[in-house]
Write a structure and sequence with these properties.
The structure is a single chain. By secondary structure, the chain is mainly alpha-helical. The chain has 2 domains: 3-307, no CATH class; 316-373, no CATH class. The protein contains 16 helices and no strands. The protein has helices spanning 3-9, 23-26, 31-39, 47-52, 67-70, 87-99, 117-121, 123-145, 153-176, 187-220, 225-232, 238-270, 278-315, 321-329, 334-357, 361-373.
Length: 376
């Protein structure tokens, strides 16, 4: 194993010892990238990502479970006319009704154009939904990883931040109750509940970032010596093996960068000047959401293909003369059919391996899906 490949599987430090990072993939955000990032919040595809990983079309209406989606409209309300009709309030109520279908429990607002308790308390549904999404993912990860799920400082920190988020949402919810009395809807009241909403969104954002950071670090551990050994033993030429390792380095670098950026963004949300950092945090969330979408789709293919190849190669050794004669004389026999199925599966997996090595990740994904659906 050369030094470049040894660095990739070194789990002592968890980083490339030669300093290799994903700078070209996820490095410093240039000014021309900022508009693209903000315009494709949570589901966008950056140009850099398209160069590295085959993109997928964003799913309609999808959104990340993090604070900025919930943090925002109360502090943008016009406070000059709190009791009368406002076309801007009516437009806001219409927009909230349009998104309510995707938020469990969210009520349909009367589009009166006037501020009332249902409109002012509406963020609670978005906040609780975002929090529930984070908790659901955390439970699913703990179940899927069993005893391997870390119980370290990072895990405890995430639980602590989730508790802060839940407390902040409850505080917002309790404060918003006063709006049931229209005379309590004053400038100071709206500013107060707006601050509470943003505080809840702050902790939801940090919890989401910490969860993503932890996931990225656990995924780095997939690039083990065992995986490298299986790639080296794959029944393909050396050029394909080296290209496969290179694709792994791209994944590994992206995971490193995601973890680093998430960690820095979480620290910004812990600082006293966290509100001033929200635009930068939103950029990190947007950029990493696009990366994670493709990593989640293609990394399992990258990891499982060498393992499946090795397993099938053991089951399907090079046939001897008698095996060939038997298959020719008795093509319909159970053993002949089984051998043919294994040969077909081995061919499909080899094709997928070569596609991944060439960077044709979607083509490999399709091949593996077809092989799975056919029972190969």
């Amino acid at each position: 194993m050369d030094s470049r490949h040894k660095a990739m599987v070194d789990r002592t430090t968890g980083i490339y010892k030669d300093g290799k990072t994903a700078a070209g993939l996820n490095g410093g955000i240039r000014p021309e990238e900022q508009a693209e990032i903000l315009s494709t919040m949570f589901e966008g595809q950056s140009a850099d990502i398209r160069k590295i990983i085959t993109p997928q079309a964003p799913s309609p209406g999808a959104a990340a479970a993090s604070g900025p989606r919930a943090a925002g409209y109360l502090d943008r309300l016009s406070l000059s006319n709190l009791t009368g009709y406002s076309p801007k309030i009516q437009a806001l109520q219409s927009r909230l009704n349009a998104q309510a279908a995707g938020i469990p429990g969210a009520p349909r607002l009367d589009e009166t154009g006037k501020l009332d308790y249902p409109t002012l308390s509406y963020p609670r549904y978005v906040l609780y939904y975002d929090l529930s999404q984070i908790k659901s993912r955390l439970r699913a990860e703990k179940i899927s990883e069993g005893g391997n799920f870390p119980a370290d400082h990072a895990a405890r920190k995430q639980e602590e931040v989730l508790a802060r988020a839940e407390s902040a949402i409850a505080s917002f919810d309790q404060a918003a109750q006063a709006a049931k009395n229209p005379r309590k809807i004053t400038v100071s009241f709206v500013r107060s509940i707006s601050a509470k909403q943003k505080e809840a969104s702050r902790w939801i954002s940090e919890a989401a970032l910490l969860q993503e950071q932890s996931r990225a670090e656990r995924r780095q551990a997939l690039f083990s010596q065992a995986l490298y050994t299986l790639v080296s033993a794959a029944p393909v030429d050396d050029g394909a093996k080296k290209a496969y390792i290179t694709q792994g380095e791209i994944f590994f670098s992206a995971l490193m960068e995601i973890g680093d950026e998430d960690g820095r963004a979480a620290q910004l949300l812990e600082s006293k000047s966290w509100e001033a950092s929200l635009p930068l945090v939103a950029q990190v969330e947007s950029r990493n959401a696009a990366l994670n979408k493709n990593i989640s789709r293609y990394l399992p293919d990258y990891v499982k293909t060498p393992y499946l190849l090795a397993s099938l190669s053991k089951q399907n050794p090079t046939p001897g003369l008698w095996d060939k004669i038997s298959a020719w004389i008795f093509p319909a026999s159970a053993s002949a059919r089984s051998a043919a199925q294994r040969t077909d599966a081995l061919s499909r997996l080899t094709e997928a391996f070569r596609d991944i090595a060439a960077g044709n990740l979607e083509a490999a994904h399709t091949v593996l899906e077809l092989a799975g659906s056919s029972g190969s």
